[in-house]
Amino acid sequence: MYQVNEIILYGSEGICKIDNMMTRHVNGQPIEYYVLKPIKSESSTIYVPTLNEELTKKMKRVLSYQEIIDLIHFIPDSELLWIDNDNLRKERYKGILRDGNRQEIMQLIRTLYLHQLKLKEEGKKFHASDDKFYKDAERILYEEFAYVLNISEEEVVPFICQEIDVKEIA
């Protein structure tokens, strides 16, 4: 169970603060909710029923500094997640973003980045759905990295590159 004032990652909404816990009555039954405030949009409010397993699974503890460093060092040896079949690839990538496993999200970013480079070399265009997955994965992961590392999102890629001593990764 999460606590009020705790900072979490909530699905594709990104970093949120648990602003409150509240009970609402629905059909005469009391239902307890987490009240989440996205840090990028404090005017937004997300209500997550505490007993709704599907929605509470989207709530993840924010990575620690050391977990981020470990994840960054995982990048060069990570397996690529490319799937040639468009439909299977879309389903797999949707699942990765939905599940929120940061290691898989990092692998997804690396896979799509390298695929995009390959296509550029061949004079081909990046598929629109792959571009969307790439941008969504970056947004989710880089927002969390920026928050934990106390840097801007624009500084995340240079930080990663410096940490693994490469010129460019994504």
From TrEMBL:
Q: Where is the CarD-like/TRCF RNAP-interacting domain?
A: 1-113
Gene Ontology terms describing biological process:
rRNA transcription
Task: Please give the name of this protein.
Answer: CarD family transcriptional regulator
